[in-house]
Amino acid sequence: MKVLVADDDAVSLHILEHKLVQWGYEVVTAREGNEAWETLQQPEPPRLAVLDWVMPGRDGLQIIRGLRSPTREPYTYLLLLTARAQHDDLIEAMEAGADDFLAKPFDPQELRVRLRAGRRIVELQEQLVAAREELRAQATHDSLTGLWNRASILEALERELERGQRERRPFSVAMADIDYFKAVNDRLGHQVGDVVLAEVARRMCARVRPYDVVGRYGGEEFLVILPGCDSREAQRMVERLRAEVGMGIVVSDRAPVSVTISLGVSTFKPGSRLTCEQLLRAADEALYAAKDLGRNRAVAAR
Fold first, then answer.
1. Residue 246's domain spans which residues?
2. Would residue 145 count as lying in a domain?
């Protein structure tokens, strides 16, 4: 694990660096407070820091207070190492947000076990963040396809509509449905159907732009939000999706499956008073028109 050691005393800095390297840490050093602060602002900062209290530039307490924003992540474990060893100093350091306090001259073994405790805290925090992100993904994504789930894609549609109204810019919505999907489930089983769903989702994601949004609307239906696309551009985009999905056979353990999709497209135009419900209804009606025309095609709402 990477550790920042900040101390303006060259001898103390050398001793600390030598000990920490012996104990298996990757050490980054700083000889004054501003350098230490800049190191801790990097995209992947050290997760442990041993800071001297009194340094040129920012002192240790100023660095600690600056780091203790309630929303700051990842968490940095901060150990204040100082010759100031009065009871009031300890209280001031801990109230500022220090995790631990060690007086100089320090006992190397005491520093070692305190850093070991800090490392455990950092690792536990990493596990908590990972668990939180996993729960967040489960709440917002479809477990089978990895796409946004119905609630999340509808929230994205509401945000895009608000932006379109505010910035007076067009966007389009495409409703996509896998053709004859019920027959796949009935003939080959739901496990093959799941393979088809996941592969269609993958192919669609491969052809959209980085800022487009794709979600599983329900069953074998998908919703695609195309920011900045008027009806003509949207038609070009959905034809790319249709061609990508139908370009090859989906291979499962039981049988190869030929897959196509039908799409219905509706467009929000600047100045329009269309609601999300109306955009969805128009796209759905266009989708049914595509099916009535023989499937494997895209139809724009009138």
1. 150-300
2. no
Side-chain-side CA neighbours of 243 within 13 Å: the count stands at 8
**Whether 129 and 184 share a structural domain:** no
220 is catalytic: yes
User: Which residues lie closer than 8 Å to 114 by C-beta, 6 or more apart?
Assistant: 79, 100, 102
Q: Which of 118, 138, 158 is the last residue of a domain?
A: 138
The catalytically annotated residue of 35, 199, 220, 244 is: 220
Asked if residue 282 and residue 159 are part of one domain, the reply reads: yes
Would you say residue 143 lies in a domain? no
- C-alpha separations of 22 from 16, 46, 286, 293 in Å: 10, 18, 69, 74
> What pLDDT tens digit does each residue of the chain (302 aa) get?
899 999 988 888 888 999 999 999 999 999 999 999 999 999 889 999 999 988 898 888 899 988 887 667 788 999 988 877 677 877 888 888 899 888 888 888 999 999 999 999 999 988 888 888 888 878 899 999 999 999 999 999 999 999 999 999 999 999 999 999 999 999 889 999 999 999 999 999 999 999 999 999 999 999 999 999 999 999 999 999 999 999 888 877 777 889 999 999 999 999 888 999 999 999 999 999 999 999 999 999 98
